[in-house]
Amino acid sequence: MSGDADGAAADRESGDAEAVSNADGDAGAAADVDTNDETPTEGTTEPVAGDTGSRPSEGARTRPSASAVAAAGLLATIPVALVALPVAGLLRLAGTTPAGSGIAPAAVLTGIVVGIGGSYAVGPVLVRRSIRNLPDDAGFEAIEDRIVERSTARNLDPPEIRFVDVDAATIAVVDSLSETTIVVPTRIEELDDDAQAAVIEHALTRLETRNAALVTAVLAPALLVEAWTLLGLELARRREEPEEDDRLPQMLGAGDREEREVPWVVFAAAGVLLLVAVVPLWLVFAVGDRLLVGGGRRRADTLVANDSGAGKPGRGGGTGTAGGTGALADALTFARDARGARDWPPTLDRLSLLGMADPVTQRVRGTSRLELRVRLARLRVRENRDGSE
């Protein structure tokens, strides 16, 4: 625009009236384009309470938030410790150290290379195996078209879409170096169009902000600590009379608990030893898991709500109004009613809109019972505020 204005001024000085007219027309057209590209300010400056809600620029993958990187780094210390401690013990027993270094630096370096590298490699393998074991569904063309359309609008490579015939009312996004997959259960079809759109936007937002990539990368150590803790609790649990729903946590299998022929004291002692050993890892796991997984979901909630309140069509639920925020809240409520669905694999739980784990597993993860209520409350407050503006 400044170049057009300078040209117009030069033409006025030369007295060329026609050039002046053309320059003014170009400047007016440019001004119109700039005006049309501006994002409406109403409803965009105030994020959902408790979150910054900064929206990554549309068009490409963005850097993850500092809290997400810190949480992923915290979880990455688990495989480092699990590899470094045995390596240090072996080096000490062998009485040898690598040239130019001590036992501790050599063990830590080995833990970083083997532990983190192994975690990064194993996580996607576990996820792909779980997806393959899920029953296929014919899929829904409208949902597939919407995912492809919205991915293209964000300048993201359209992900592979896998429709599965399960009862869980959630949607998972897996992001690894080799492939990106969105897993869509059958029950998503039961949502209305706006709620479906909101769920898809939530998944694509976690993909765009690289939250799904970070969760996938540190999935293996999180699953290891979770299974370790659940096994310790299961062994330490004393049962004299069977409960109404006496089933194993999903991570340990879907079968009923069997009667123990060995005295319960033996199992209890083994369980206590496992729990004592896992406590340091569990503390790191619980904090990192809540920051990375729970924080990533809340940030995606905020970004979808902000886009909805800003009137961006298709982002917050297909309407470009406060209704999109309500649609996401409705989808979360619908998913909540299906929590505990045992046909949703634990490996996909952290990559989903909402965890489907049973109550015991939720407690092991350190997940607060109020987490979902807080998410819903924030969305409802935002919906009411946007609706009154």
Question: What is the straight-line distance between the termini?
Answer: 34 Å
> Can you give the helix content as a percent range?
55-70%
What series of H and E elements makes up the topology?
HHHHHEEEHHHHHHHH
Shape: globular
Number of helices: 13
Overall number of structural domains:
1
| Count of distinct strands | 3
Q: Describe the main β-sheet briefly.
A: 3 strands, mixed
Content of β-strand: under 5%
- Counting helices, strands and paired strands, the structural category is mainly alpha
Radius of gyration: 26 Å
Low-confidence stretches: 1-59, 313-322
Quick recap of the structure?
By secondary structure, this protein is mostly helical. It has 13 helices and three strands.
Q: Would you mind describing this structure in some detail?
A:
By secondary structure, the chain is mainly alpha-helical. The chain has one domain. The protein is 61% helix and 4% strand. Strands 1-3-2 form a three-stranded mixed β-sheet, with helices on both faces. Helix 8 (219-236) crosses helix 9 (264-309). The longest helix has 46 residues, at 264-309. The chain is globular. 38% of the residues are buried.
